[in-house]
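Q: What structure does this chain adopt?
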Amino acid sequence: MQRPSGVPEGAVWNASDERWVVGDPKGSGTVETYRGDGRIAARWHCIDGVMHGEYVRFHDDGSVSQRGQLERGRMVGVASAFRARDASSEPFPDVPEAVVRIDTTYDDGEAVGMAMFDADGTELAPEAVAFLERMDELREAHEAEPSEPWTPTLATPPRPDGVPSDAEFAHADSYHARWEHGDRIDGEKHGVWRYWAVNGALVMETALERGRVSWSKTYRAGGRIATHLRAVDGGASLYEAFAPDGTLAYAIRYGTDDVMEIGADDILEERIFQRDGQLRRAMLRSTDDAGERSLREYGAGERLVFENVAVAGGRELRFHDDGRHVLTVFAADEPSRSSATVHGGTERTMSIDATGIDADTG
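A:
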């Protein structure tokens, strides 16, 4: 069988497992297996043929399906299983669809505990899991026999501590069944609304004016903020995403203050930050009076590294290194005039094919 391009040299095809194998499973070191099409399937370490250390399995799309630790072949610590976003040949337990991660705790090879989590990272208590299982059963019954009403008639789950006594439980579906609390004016949500998961964890806050959102926050398990979207001065909106430790990781500024209608075409500025708070990368977009768009990218220390600007007869892509302009690519409206110029001690210009370069090239 011919080795696919994604499989490292030296891999051996195991016909019985239908896997390419890199490394010696009966020896010591790292072992990797790949599917027949070249996509990675698993990675682990072994000593004298016994699994030892971290092991990872992968879904068909390359995302992690399982991750855990072994000591001389015995499971230890926490092993996590992850639901695939798309169809996958990797198994996942038959649990409610809202459960996307299962953590199993092991002590010297024996399972001693289990916890289930939803897409927000919120742990689902046993009674919450049972409630969601019943929701799934109702939906499946409706899909099998559409004449059956879909509106759930389940009793409201037990109200967790911390959820207001007048909060209502929204029987939406397994993904969005949650507690919610706020005011309404003429039937429209108004003021600050708060949302809690089935187990009582605060997952979102939203401020509305007669149904129109002015800001929204989401929270991680444990209460730390995850995202913050809000309208800001100048008719703009700002979206911020935070790392698990609470530090700012990502920020986008949009050219509209309608926070529920923002899109990629509205992006004015993107900033990505390192864990220490220093800027890693920034991209600024602008449009001149003639409607021509420009893009400038900055690296650490806010040094200019790239420009995509409109010029007479086409566009220029300018590359910078440590503050020096090192390369210019001219993408001409008339393709035969396109060129690349290397700047430095001896400037050189050559003709190129600039097909596909436009205002969004970055």
